[in-house]
Structures are given as structure tokens and as C-alpha cells.
Amino acid sequence: MTGTDLLTPAQLPPRRRSRRSATLAVGCVLAGLIALLALVSVLWLPYDAEDTSGGRLDGPGGGHLLGTDKLGRDLLTQVMTGSRIAVEAGLGSVTIAAALGITLGVLAAFAQGWLDDTLSAFLDILIAFPTLLLAMLIVAARSATLGSAVLAIGLAQSAVVARLVRILVKRVLAQDYVTAARTSGTSWPRTVLSHVLPNIWPTLVVNLALQFGLAVLAEAGLSYLGLGAPPPNASWGRMLQEAQATFTTAPAGALAPGILLVLLVIGVNLVADGLRDTLDPATRRRRS
Q1: Which residues contact 288 (CB under 8 A, 6 or more apart)?
Q2: ∠ CA 271-201-150 to the nearest 5 degrees?
Q3: Is 249 in a helix, a strand, or coil?
């Protein structure tokens, strides 16, 4: 153990604190700008999503800031709509993953013997199950919608969250203060709320932030294959698929959604990295 192991974030050298703060700040700015664009798209759009009055593959300028696509639709309108779909997909998938993952993870951590082995095996199978194949099964049972994609992504990510929660909870349950609480008559629900969740939430929040970025990429991939939000919903993945044939003549159709997708994922990853440095003492010690 070094002298920096016991330092709190406020006691770390100014250069190190500023570097970590900068990472979190940059991530918040990038992700916040996309979130703001998504919020604006709910309240206002330059054109209707199905408006094809523009010229085909017009360049940026005039009444179309980013130009138009091969059908004459405004690209800025599509990009703004795509930002809303990306944020909805990320939040929806993470919500499902958190709800199912935390529940299954806590149950698996408290389980003993064959039940623990069964739940662990179930989680391993679900993790190994490809998200794309799961999405295809859900789409076959329902239809190709944003809801189907979010459900498939959320179910796939819930297994990852559950396995992490199981490991974290078992680690907390092995602590002496938890044993003392149980010996004093504290019920299991109160133990979870008072001792388990407060000790696992820093690591859990970081993981969920990372899962958000992965969910956005997964939704874009599913939409690229036609398994996401159907037209006229302009998902970034579908925009990339439609623009690949005209990239040389009208590159804005692919560059705009591609750049925003990359910026959102980078921003979320930087937020997760900043939160890890801020909230996780173990990570602070390793990087000191």
C-alpha cells in the first residue's frame, strides 16, 4: 500500500484531480450535446419526417443545412430524429438491464447450492446468446420496431449486469459488518437496502454507463440490418445503410449520423471513465 492509497479525491495532487475532472467534463459535454439535440427534436424539427419536397441528394445549404437524402428528405431532420431514437434506445435498454440484472444478481448472490449453480449457468447461457439472434427471435414474435430492439438489447445486457451484481453482492455479504447485522436480527430486505446496495452502486453506475454506449451501438447495428425502428423513424443505423450507396456523391448522409454516433459513444465512455475514477476507490488506488 502506498501513501496515495488512502487519499480521498480532494486530497489527490491537483494535476491528477484536474485530469480526472477533465475526463468527466468532456464526456458530459459530448453526451449532453447529443441529449440536448434529442430533446430539441421532441419539441421542434426543421421539416416533417416524411417531407420529400427537397431535391434528391442536394448538398448542404439553402433550406437544408445538411442537405437531403436520395428521397429528398432533410438530413438535419433525420439526424435530430436519430439522436432521439439513440437516447431512447440507450435509456430503455439500460433500464431493462438494470431492473432484471439487479434482481437476478441479488437472488443469485443469496442463493445457495444447486439454486446458485442453476442461476449462474442461466446467466452464462444468456451472456453467450448473441444479441442479434435474440433480436431476430423477438422481431419474429412481434415486429421490427424500436421496442423490439430495446427489449432484445436490454435482455442481453441484463445477464452482464446480473453477473456483476452477483459478484459484488457476494463480496459485501462476506464482510463482518453484514454478518453482525444479520446476527442482530436484521432482515434480508433491510440488509440489502442498508448495506448491500449502498456498497455496490458506485461500480454498478459505472457499468450501466458503459452499457448505455453499447446499447446505442447495438441499436444502430440492428437498424442497419432492418431490425430496428421502421421508416419514417430515422435511426442513425438505417441512415448509414441508406447512405452507403451514395457516399461518394453525397457524403453528408453517412458522415453526419456516423460522427454523432461516435461522439455519443465516446462521450458516454468518458463519463463512465470519469465516474470510475471518482466513485471507485479500488480504481483510484490502481491508477495512483
Answers
A1: 2, 4, 5, 7, 12, 16
A2: 65
A3: coil
